[in-house]
UniProtKB/TrEMBL annotation:
Cited PANTHER family: TUBULIN-SPECIFIC CHAPERONE A (PTHR21500:SF0)
GO molecular function list: beta-tubulin binding; tubulin binding
UniProt-recorded name of the protein: Tubulin-specific chaperone A
Subcellular location: Cytoplasm, Cytoskeleton
UniProt-listed Gene3D superfamilies: 1.20.58.90
Subunit structure: Supercomplex made of cofactors A to E. Cofactors A and D function by capturing and stabilizing tubulin in a quasi-native conformation. Cofactor E binds to the cofactor D-tubulin complex; interaction with cofactor C then causes the release of tubulin polypeptides that are committed to the native state.
Presence of keyword DNA-binding: no
Organism superkingdom: Eukaryota
Lineage of origin: Eukaryota, Viridiplantae, Streptophyta, Embryophyta, Tracheophyta
Family membership noted in the UniProt record: Belongs to the TBCA family.
Amino acid sequence: MATVRNLKIKTSTCKRILKELHSYEKEVEREAAKTADMKEKGADPCDLKQQENVLAESRMMVPDCHKRLEASLADLKATLAELEEANEKEGPEFEDARSTIIEVEKLFQTTEA
């Protein structure tokens, strides 16, 4: 049985993963710039290889966050639907959950386009 507490937890989870995703995207940009700068300056090949590994690891985290966010979004939607079926539809938790769902879906639409 879904509860308002579960809804709050699932909403927070979605928000946390979304924040993580944005953080990794910024990290990829930062590391890519650093790698390009090192290539431009003719850095030591070992240092350059290490930097490329760091960049590759950061890039791997973006799809992982997307998968976790999709799963978390599905979980949040299911919990919200279950509570709405039980005629619980009002309160700040519900508005927060709905706005989070809209925000995440908007992100997925811009990513797919």
